[in-house]
Amino acid sequence: MPKRLAPLLPAENGTEHSPFDSPREDPSKRKRVGTEIACNACRRRKTRCDGIRPACAACRKRSTECIFVERRENTKSSQSPDGSQEVLELLRSAPESQAFEILRLLRANGDFSAVLSIVRGGANGLPRPSEQDTARAVRGQAQSSLELELMAKSPVSYPPLRNVPLTTGERETLLRPNRLRRSRSFDHQYQMYTAIDERASHYAEAFCAEAEKLWLCEQDNDTILNAASAQLLSLAYLGHGKDHYVLKYLAMALSMGKRLNLFGVEPSKAVQELERIPPETQRANSYTAWGIFNWGVLTTLFYQQPGLEYPDYPPVYPVPGDPTPSSTPDTADSFGSDVSEGSLPSFMGRTLPVLCKFWHMMHGVTLQYYKDRSSPILDHVSLDYAEFKFRELLAWMESLSPNLVLRDHCPHHVVVFHTWFHAAVLDIFRPFIRQPRGGRYRLKTFTDRGCTPDAAFNASVKQLKQLVVRFRCNYKSSSYTLLWQSALIYVANAVLHDTDDPEWRFYFLTCIYGYESLRPSYRIAEVISRGLLAMTLRDGDISGPEARHLLQEMKDTDGNDAAGDIRATFMVDLDLAMTDPEAARVENLAERFEDIALFRDFTTVDDDEARNFRRMESVDSD
């Protein structure tokens, strides 16, 4: 039986088709929408993707995360590898409130990929992640709800911690001195230049001797120049390890400043005096007044120098760089908008006026905490006051101009400023931490009931650890500026209270080698290291041979001989300083190093800590 076939239609006139020609498209069928690339979720499901960024329609409907991965060969793509173009598109298309939130996160973090991981899904109709979800997306596993709240609400003070593994080179930099190459491109004072050429140390000593002779001739002449000179001599002798001279010249600078009505004068009287001074003289007086005042507060807070008389009243002179002479830190709340960029040195930007405001705020803390050393701090300082100052600092930090925010390649003095901020937070909360469980304090102005002084303290410790690593890895000035060394003392003290943390030894060695890199310029660095090692030996965290090995590496570094008349009366054991300041001094703990090491030799044969230390040393030497 013949097979039935469909009848053929006649071909259209004037056209000829090959049997291999494609069939004509059916106009009734929906035209396929072409997309350059589909998202990961649609490709896995093999479903249609419209390619709309940052979230396609299918992912929005499914309420799932939408991620696009660019083809490497697609060189014409409008998306940048670091995600910056995508963030820009989000800023253009998102609602205004969300755009401001994205901008705030970008300003605080500076990492486009991290910002994208937070905001992706927050725009184009998807539910906005909560503040704690936002912080978790950046931080990963945070230790406390307070830390999450600080990261979400105060990103300038507590930017997201970047859990980026260190490269081999960075780890070697941290665990070995960051020696500078000798280069003529550096033009620092001789004491700092010793980090490049050790022969400069002889000039530094000669210049100090000459400066002392000049001071003997001028010390009875009260002038702005002489007051500033005394302050600079105080700073120089800190690096020389002559604390008695540090206190001597700082006290002279403060006394001369009071006689010149630069500070320490009742405000109404000082304002009357200020009105009679010409503007040009006011400007010179302003720099001197705030320079001496700032150094006095810093020395009182971070070094807790005994016997130092510092002023009860801050300067009434305008902050350097402030174009409105009548404004002071009490009347001008924001430095970010008032400071004239043109009146400030380009190499410092807005950092100086911000530091003036910072030390003015911390001046109240030093008066409350350290003015009366005859009684324990808890007898005259309440947690309410500590929390108030913490809140005041947080609110002020969030108002800083963008060039004072931590970001990649920011100036070194911005990083130093942030280390001072977190070190100050540690000092504010130190008297209230490590209380028995039943007597623990609680911060009242934060949302979660678990917000304690310990949580705030630990949040700043984490930030300070990352700042130390960042400064050592990325800034050559870590080898020749002493102004950041307080961060090393504070981190070392913190990790010695948390030796259960597997990373404690890494951070402790980072601090020790940080001082080793400073030793060619500053004799005091070896004495501080000896004091920190004595603390570690005393608490049984390392053995005597380990500590001696580290100290010998310090001595082998090219630099000045640390022997001789070195005085270091400031505190190195910060917790002990609250109950026994005399025993907590650098020089006293450093002097006990050998006795403590011998005691450890006779009480410890070998333990796991010693074996771990030797294993780490062998890996580093390879």
Structural class: mainly alpha
Query: Superfamily at the CATH H level of the domain at 37-68?
Result: Zn(2)-C6 fungal-type DNA-binding domain
What is the CATH class designation of the domain at 37-68? Few Secondary Structures
Helix content: 40-55%
Number of strands: 0
Here the CATH topology of the domain at 37-68 equals CD2-Gal4
Give the mean pLDDT: 77
End-to-end separation in angstroms reads: 89 Å
Radius of gyration: 31 Å
Region (Disordered): 1-33, 319-340
Domain Zn(2)-C6 fungal-type: 38-68
Pfam families: Zn_clus
Biased composition (Basic and acidic residues): 14-28
Question: Care to describe what's here?
Answer:
The chain has 26 helices and no strands. With 622 residues, it is mostly helical. Helix 3 runs antiparallel to helix 4, helix 22 runs antiparallel to helix 23 and helix 22 packs parallel to helix 25. It is globular, with a radius of gyration of 31 Å. About 11% of the residues have low confidence. InterPro entries: Notoamide_regulator, Zn2-C6_fun-type_DNA-bd_sf, Zn2Cys6_DnaBD.
